[in-house]
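From the methods appendix. Each design record in this collection lists the tokenized structure first, followed by the designed amino acid sequence. Records were kept in a plain field format so they could be parsed without special tools. The example shown here is representative of the layout used throughout.

RECORD:
FOLD TOKENS (122 positions):
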């Protein structure tokens, strides 16, 4: 469809009431910039972040499956360094099928969301 210009945001989910755990992972560990949610959405829970020109919306809901395909892919500069940091933290790394011109791997955040890290070689 030619009217689609870009990705505006990605939304993933966490269990109800786990915002502080999300802040520890996405804000403190990954270093993302938290942004304020609109007042009309604050009662729904969750937390939002700015990632470059995009937004990551973390919503709350009852979590029935921790192994879904929901994910965000972060483009990174030094994937080897990030891999070492994950290993040092004891975070399990899932190798992904290769794609041309990129190196990538995924992890699961504390809520079971798949988080992909990708470094483009172009």
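DESIGN:
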């Amino acid at each position: 469809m030619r009217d689609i210009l870009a990705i505006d945001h990605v939304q993933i989910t966490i269990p109800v009431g786990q915002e502080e755990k999300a802040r520890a992972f996405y804000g403190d560990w990954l270093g993302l910039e938290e942004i304020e949610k609109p007042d009309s959405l604050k009662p729904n829970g969750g937390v939002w972040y700015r990632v470059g020109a995009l937004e990551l919306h973390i919503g709350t809901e009852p979590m029935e499956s921790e192994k879904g395909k929901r994910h965000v892919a972060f483009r990174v500069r030094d994937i080897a360094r990030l891999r070492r940091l994950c290993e040092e933290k004891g975070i399990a790394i899932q190798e992904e099928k290769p794609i041309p011109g990129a190196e990538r791997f995924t992890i699961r955040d504390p809520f079971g969301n798949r988080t992909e890290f990708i470094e483009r070689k172009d």
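APPENDIX NOTE: The chain has one domain: 9-120.
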